[in-house]
Design a protein that fits this description.
16 helices, 4 strands, 434 Repressor (Amino-terminal Domain), 4-stranded mixed β-sheet, mainly alpha
């Protein structure tokens, strides 16, 4: 039976207005509105046209209501810069990730969440508190995605071709989710991951919004990635940009983030910081990160896909199970590749017992 909520989700995922979709399937916008409101279902030929126009399988439109991402509970990395359609497309990707997560969670034992509720804490203190809780000391974090996953956060990728869409996070019940746009630099992604972690522990369930909240998450991210003690001990009194490019490797952050952190800690003067910013702009470091680090991907999803490969379950099978295009799976699993397999029908895949606890090494 046709499910109107599924049509709305698919249209939003494709960033289409009702009129744009109506034009593609040769009907009036009022008709699309009626389909989405449940006033009446599309005829078979209309449903075929919708599936083709939206690039979703026919079966997708008859599934149960999706567990949609509640915009009120989401902390977006750059909410004010995004259009409504960009936001809706990113949230619809999150709904697909929810369904993939639930499919995986039925078959694998995933790490339990171990985040603190630090609402009301100063961001610098909160970052230090969480580092102590996770026994990280003041050392550099070599892989943010792996760390987050080891502490029970579910991390998925976004492949939104829009600079305005950085990242977002939310609590789904007692489980934290983080979505990262992988079209950014590796250093940018790490900062986004730490920024979203800040939202999850400082602003649980997205109850707070605004520029002040974003600044708090940014301050948390800087302190979490670059503890004041280690940064202060490593940097000379008047660092050059060349020195900062070398030093940024230790904390795996952007050169701009490191310069800003030094300025906020009072380790470089206002004049020197401005000089560094001018030099970075002249060299194009605002657009292209110098000596970019390797991109981080999910260890949990890699382990899951590897285990599924042993049972001859490909991403094509996953897509069939969830009734979504294969490329939608690709976009949320960091493009991880499973090779050497012949796709088989999802109907041949039998339920599995949980396969070990996917515990991760930081």
């Amino acid at each position: 039976m046709f499910n109107p909520a599924r049509l709305l989700m698919a249209r939003r995922r494709r960033s289409l207005t009702m009129k744009a979709l109506a034009d593609r399937v040769a009907v009036e916008p009022r008709t699309v509105s009626a389909w989405e409101s449940g006033e009446f279902p599309p005829k078979d030929e209309n449903l075929q046209a919708l599936a083709q126009a939206l690039r979703f399988p026919l079966d997708f439109f008859s599934r149960d209501n999706p567990d949609e991402v509640d915009p009120e509970g989401v902390s977006f990395r750059a909410l004010t810069k995004m259009t409504a359609r960009q936001r809706e497309a990113a949230l619809s990707a999150g709904a697909i990730a929810f369904e993939l997560h639930d499919w995986i969670a039925e078959r694998f034992v995933l790490p339990s969440p171990d985040l603190l509720d630090l609402r009301g804490e100063d961001p610098e203190i909160a970052a230090s508190t969480l580092r102590r809780h996770w026994k990280l000391g003041d050392r550099s974090i070599r892989n943010m995605v792996h760390l987050l996953e080891s502490k029970g956060a579910r991390v998925f990728s976004l492949a939104e071709d829009a600079r305005e869409v950085d990242a977002y996070s939310l609590w789904r019940g007692a489980t934290p989710f983080i979505f990262l746009n992988t079209l950014k630099s590796a250093e940018h992604n790490r900062h986004d991951a730490a920024h979203e972690l800040g939202h999850l522990v400082l602003h649980k369930h997205g109850a707070q919004r605004g520029s002040a909240v974003e600044r708090e998450a940014d301050s948390f991210a800087a302190a979490f990635l670059m503890p004041a003690v280690t940064v202060g001990a490593a940097v000379s009194r008047v660092p050059t940009l060349t020195q900062l490019v070398l030093l940024k490797r230790h904390w795996v952050v952007s050169v701009a983030s490191l310069a800003y952190r030094l300025h906020k800690l009072g380790l470089v003067s206002e004049w020197h910081y401005r000089s560094l910013c001018i030099e970075m702009s002249e060299l194009g470091y605002r657009r292209r990160e110098p000596e970019e680090a390797p991109r981080e991907t999910s260890q949990v999803l890699a382990k899951v896909l590897l285990a599924l490969r042993d049972d001859r379950v490909t991403k094509a099978v996953l897509a069939e199970e969830l009734a979504v295009p294969v490329d939608e799976i690709e976009k949320i699993v960091f493009g991880l590749v499973v090779t050497g397999l012949t796709p088989i029908s999802a109907k041949q895949v039998q339920p599995r017992q949980p396969t070990g606890n996917l515990r991760l090494v930081k």
